[in-house]
Structures are given as C-alpha cells and as structure tokens.
Amino acid sequence: MENQELIKQVTEKAEKWLTPAYDAETQAEVKRMLENPDKTELIDSFYKDLEFGTGGLRGIMGAGTNRMNIYTVGAATQGLSNYLNKCFAGKKDISVVVGHDCRNNSDKFAKISADIFSANGIKVYLFDDLRPTPEVSFAIRHFGCQSGINITASHNPREYNGYKAYWDDGAQVLAPHDTAIIDEVNKVTVADIKFNGNKDLIQIIGKEVDKVYLDMVHSISIDPEVIRRQKDLSIVYTPLHGAGRVLIPDSLKEWGFENINCVPEQMVKDGNFPTVVSPNPENAEALSMAIALAKKIDADIVMASDPDADRVGMACKDDKGEWVLINGNQTCLIFLYYIIKNRIAMGKMQPNDFIVKTIVTTELIKAVADKNKIEMRDCYTGFKWIAREIRLSEGKQQYIGGGEESYGFLAEDFVRDKDAVSACSLLAEICAWAKDQGKTLYDVLMEIYVEYGFSKETTVNVVKPGKSGAEEIKAMMDNFRANPPKEIGGSAVSLIKDYKTLELTDVQGNVSKLDMPETSNVLQYFTVDGTKISVRPSGTEPKIKFYIEVKGEMGCPKCYAGADAEAEKKVEAVRKSLGI
Asked: Is the pTM of this model over 0.90?
C-alpha cells in the first residue's frame, strides 16, 4: 500500500513536468518514465528534491526534481539570487563568480546560471572556460563578491553533475545561509525562474585572473632553493580530462620545475572520461596510464587531479623501486609534516600558526603537531569546515595547512576550498626536497612512521542506492546508536563520540558535551588498542562510509611490510566485528 501511495505521489509530481513551462526534450523524458511499467526510475527521479549536502547540490543528470537539469539548477540559482537580494538589500552592486568543470552540461548549466543571476540584477563574473574549483573560490575574494557557484560533481562518476554554492569568504555555504538558501529554493516554481539574462551584467573572465591566482599560489613555496637544485625532477601529471589541465602544468613551471610530462590522452577535455572507469584519483585504476608513462620515462613522482582539480592523488617508488599509491591520509600527513618541519628549519614558524584536519583523518597528524608544539584543530568532513576555522582566526592566528583523508589539501588561506593546483606544486617541492637528500617520498613516509608511530587507514563504502537505500542507511545508523558495540576487533570500546547528540561517552558511562559548531550524523568509536572507527552517511552519494584506523609499531624504515601485515589483520577483525 505504501509503495502505491509513493507511486501516486511521484506520478502527480512528474505530471507537472508535462506542462509548457518545461521544454519538449524534458517532457518527452518524463513521459517515457511515466509510461514505463517499472516505476523505479520515476521514483528515483521524483521522490525528493535535490538538497545541499557536504558538497552542495549533486545528482545524476536527467529529468526530475531529484536530478541535475536546467530546472533544478535554475531553481537553485533563482533561490540563491532571491536570498542574495534579501541579504544584501542595501548594497548597490551585488556580484557573484560562476565557474564550471569539464562535465557534460557543465558549460550549459554555468551559462544558464549566469543568465539567471544577471536577470535578477546581480553582476556575474563568468569564467570563459573550465577552471579548477579553487580558482573560483579565489576569484570570489579577488573581486569582492558576495557569493559564487561552481558547476561540478568533483570526482563522481560521469552521469553526475553538481552545484557548489560559495559565500563572500570564498568558502562553501554554511549555516545559517545554507538552510536559508534551501528555503528560498523550495519556494521557487518553474514560472519564477528568470531565464532571460541581462548581458550587460555578465563579465567574461579568464587569463588575467589565472595570472594573479598562480602568482599567489607560487608565494606559498617554502624552499625555492631546493627547487632550483632539483628543477629536473621528473614529474608525470594527469588531469583525468578535467580542469587541472588549464593551470597545474603552468603552476609547476612557475615554481621552477622544467621536466613536466603530462599524459596526452588525458589532457583532452571530455565529460565522458573515456580513458578511466571513474575519474577519481583515489582509485588505482585512474592513475594506471600515468604510472605506465612514469615507468617508461623513469619518473620521480606521479600526480593526478580530479575533474574540478580540487583533489590530488599520487604515486611514488617504494624501497624496491616499485610504483605504489600513497593514500589520502598519507598524503595529508606528508604535506603537514613537510610544512611544519621546514617552516621550523627555515625560521618561518610563528607561535600562533595552526593546522586543521577533519575528524575522520589520521590521528598521526595530531602526533606530529603535538611533538612539534603546533596547534591542531579537528573539524567535520567537508572543506567548508576547514574554511570556517580559517575565518574564525583571521587576523589573530595564521593557518598554515589543512586536509582530509579524501585526497583534499589546502596549503594557503587566500583560497577557501581544497586546492589541487597548490597541492600539486607543493607536492613536487616536497619530492624535490626528498631527492635533494637522496630520498623518495616513500622514504619520507617511512621516517614519519618510525618517528611518530605507525597507523593504517581503510575506508569501507557500503553503497545503497535510491530511496530504499537511504532507508537502509538510516536503519544502520539507528541500530548503531541503539546497540553500541562494547568491543571492536577484539579490543574494548573505551570512548564513543556521537556528533548527532554532541555527546562523548567514556568507558564508565560518563557523558560530556562535544564542542562542535552544529550536530552531524557521525559516530566514532575509540578502542583500548588505539583503533578509531568513524561511521557516517555520505552527504553527496548514496552510501554509508566506515573509516577504520588501526595503530601498530614500526621499529625501522625497512619494517613497513611486517607492520602493515599486522595492521591488516586488525582491520579484518574490525570489519568482521562491524559486519562489513
């Protein structure tokens, strides 16, 4: 009965899309779904409206309220325009930046959004072609805009697109603006969307902004001398068909690197991502062509950026000369280790400097910060929370770096989102610094493990698509809260953090409050042997994520294989305990 009621609801919702307010192509697509005896696609397309998650608006492209199309993008832009005109009612010139990546329809959605903003009296700085997400964040601050958007679905599969909304500090929208914008968007009907733009209010921007941004990125180099000595460092880079192709090779050149080898087939802008299964630098398969080129030319490092060039993945040679992938936790650890150690060595470190990591990122970063007496802050998943920490301390303390396990890093404060342009450049500098000492990045990682302790991090994604999947994920979280585990992987649970209730419960059952800016549907378990498990539903994809971190001992740089094998046994025991 419940299913029949749902079909009735989505049918009524879909039938509204058969009116002349929607174009013929959209109407034909909706009609096809309505006439299909299998109602799964109809339900998934209309059972809800797309909502802002940790990454903004994101969904599969197609017709429907739960899909990315000119009407959902149009409603989002109209709602944001209405909110901006309310928020800055007394301001003469409200302005926004509009950018986009390489995905199918990204350019189209960006131009439609620019038209809608301008039709609402808002000045638009529209990038002339695809650009990295961090440059959009930079441009908002550079032009003194009140907001901005980027049309991208980051590293999602090819059928997705998305809409990232930014505020005047160049960071993704946070409370109270996020929910207030959603309220405005929810009020918008298709008749309210002003599709006819005012060309006088749209200014095309491009290379002139690139230059200012790249010069700023270059300013964060810590040791230019080591680059001069190692300017021939052999770098292999791939943008995976995305926006990194526009700026990352140029940034590496500006830093002084002269031996940059791009994967030619993947330097082609293509939203179908023909050379990869998924354009995600977290996946080994996405780096296979780059590693093949690296083997051919005996390169020193491989780096890849995702389609909107905010994430970086990398590979380097191990102690046997074999190419190995360095995961997001390890990459973040190497970045912060280098920044801290070299700022101290060069006398650049200040007493009020601080770093930030997300709560699901490796605790080894805290060990590095503590030993070097640097303040480290934990925040929620999503770079808007790292940006919030920068904003809160602006003018009082200096942010020197921050990152997350999902391959995002930000080394500067003039951008307020993760930045693969600066990250790739800094990564090349770290590699040059290592080579200058006769080492590889792998050697540096081994030294960190010996000095600060060994840990192994594994992320398990349990995918549950559609409405039924969302219900399963909710039931899983409810069950964890109703029946918290007493033991995980053979070790007793000593601490539970529930960010939904903002409660910390210790082994004696004592409850205290967690100091966080708002609630979030995340659970964390800490065990006696140092294991940390974080559980959270994804804000942008139909899955529940389990982040597992186990501790181990590593007595020497050559002891990695044994430490890793022991840690893997612990990981398997944890997975068995959790039924994943």
From this structure: yes
